[in-house]
Amino acid sequence: MCLRRNLLLLFCLFNQILFANAKKLSVDSLYKTRDMQDIINSFFKRKSYNDTTGSHSNLSLLPSVGYNPSYGLEFGIIVSGGKNYGDPANTTFSVFNTNVFVSTNGLASAEFKHNTFSNHNIWNLQGGYQVGRTVALDYGVGTGHAHQSDDNFVFNGLPVDNNPGVLPIKFTYLKLYEKVYRKLFDNFYAGMGIIVDGYQNIDKPKKGAVRRHSHNTWYSTENKYPSIGYWANGVLFNFQYNSRDYLNRPYKGIYADVVLRLNAEGLGSEHSATQLKTEFRKYWSLSSANPEHVLAFWLWGNYLLKGSIPYLELPGTGTDAEERSGRPYTIGRFKGTSFYFNELEYRYPITGNKLLSGVAFVNIQTGSNQQKIHLFERWNSGEGVGLRLLFNKYTRSNICMDYGAGNYGARGLFIGLNEVF
């Protein structure tokens, strides 16, 4: 059933592709493109800026409201912006994203991420800073096995109802990384960085209560980690290729990144470890008349080569840099000591003014554990469709709304700012 569903979706994808190439539309221009800012300006009868050289805002602000039994009612704000720090002809547009939220159950999170390019792309700085008190839903280690709560509906990576089969883990975290790349020659970069990941007060019981057993407790005992908190700090060695025409919403180009991460006890880690992280993204614009018709491919892998890593550091669903991989599953639904994820997505405009567009996607993922499940042995798939509302045409920021379905009855709705990849 799952294979037939994937084949049908792929057929629909390529049928849309053929249709896109057959259409004779005018060449894309920002003058004819409408975004939410234009709609708001027209509603209030304010002046709109219809060219790329006029004064306009590169800042997008999106309030967010959500609900989850573990989080409570959530209020937050997402800010996305960008700036060009050099000649636009040979300097990639730099972007940043900020996300802050608080909930009625006392959880809070703040994060800031940036991807900055200097003039002529000589230097590229990538960084992320996160701090907060949150909850993760725990299904154990490995892929390919069902769980009694899998048929629960998911909203933005969390089930909408509590289920006794899921073990929520509450913890305080501090995560930061900064990578510096130097351009070697056209589109090729090399560099290094530092990374700090700390998790404390994990499932700290109330006064007088007994600490409960969990997957984290079992794994931490097995690998000699303190179950209440741990650190994973290290250095990064990076090689990158980047020929994307834009960061927020590429129409064409390639992004490839290879990172060797070395956790060291001398830097505060509980145990030393060596990890290889690989990422590859390829974008094909399928129509010169309408370049928003894009076929996008994403490969993400994280492999443990030596040593061990803490439980909450295990790679898995939604543990990529933007925490958005693996629709329709919950974040952390599948995880392993090593993990592999692959996705194919077709993006296409719906309205002539590019305000509204759509996507269709299919993905697969696999992970290993320390027992009988090996990498590439068991797979889980997902597929879905979505809508895109253009929020800021100058930064190509958009609001994403996706519905996905997967194995074991998994299904869910995902809303965010900017493309998943």
UniProtKB/TrEMBL annotation:
Q: Does the keyword Signal apply?
A: yes
Identify the GO cellular component terms for this protein.
outer membrane
Domain Bacterial surface antigen (D15) stretches: 90-389
Tell me where the signal peptide lies: 1-22
Q: Which InterPro entries match?
A: Bac_surfAg_D15 (IPR000184)
Indicate where this protein is primarily found. Answer: membrane
* Keyword vocabulary terms for this entry: Membrane, Signal
Q: Which domain of life is it from?
A: Bacteria
The protein's location, in the record's own words, is:
Membrane
Its protein name is Surface antigen
Species name: Mucilaginibacter xinganensis
